[in-house]
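If it is no trouble, might I ask you for a protein's amino acid sequence along with its backbone structure tokens?
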Amino acid sequence: MEPSQMKASVIIPCYNGPEFIRSCLDCFRIQTHLDFEVVVVDDGSDHPLDIDPDTYPFSLRILSHPKNRGRAAARNTGVRAARNDLIIFLDSDMIVSSDFIAAHVAAHELGECGAIVGDIRFTDQWSGQPLAKYFDTRGAAKLKSGKEIPYRYFVTGNASTRKSLLISIGLFDEGFPKYGGEDLELACRLHEQGIRFAHCPAARSLHDDLPSIARHRRRMEEYGRYCLPYLVENHHYAADFLKLEWAGHGEQRRLSARIKQLAGTLFFRRPIITFLIFLVNFFPLTHGYLPRKFSFFLFDVITGGSYLIGYRRSLIEK
């Protein structure tokens, strides 16, 4: 089989964490697919990146924002600067294997789907953490490997699509005021253009950083309070799969919707979520105190309940 002629640009936004970006860049020294470049966008870090592109055996460019503008803006800067049409997005705390780029290229050469999501896991140091085990089973990982997936599973920590396509739909929306939402919003616009999505398990990346469960809760609550209103304003149908009726979204004319709103008000409260966090911390999954499915159910409630609490607060603040 002849080697692929497809050229790729890997876009890596970063903010602080210089130790992570160095480990990430080292992975590209040994890629089996050689026709690629890496574009790092330093999004206003407290200290400029001290990285010399000339010390790497591949094309590496370091771009910088004078102040922090968010991941959407950083990725857009990288896409605009990219010299190749195949764009691979990667988070800066990721470690990838030598066939990472080759796997993304091969998935696009099939020509069946225009957006590819890689396989995101955590490094061995987090293998015993319940939250890491939970994340490893979410999104595209819930479905059969290599199959077409729903657009809502598109996450740009490890994903690829075409620059020409991104430019045509307007790149990432930079209007999100807090963490999260920009990749789902982009997926909505890709979906509206008829783009199909696929999971590529061979394009695996390993997160080198894991948030605490309490930090995850705070992040999800901020996401619900500040980002989901902006997302739903532009893509109304997203409220359905996000189950925002539990937080009082919509006109609530149907009895079932009113019951969900009442149940959400009663059960999705911060003290209850805090108690559930205590449970999963005190009875860790790794010790077998809680059944695996029940532990994952609790994480589902913590995650969904937190962003619903935030979204309900946004409705009150209107």
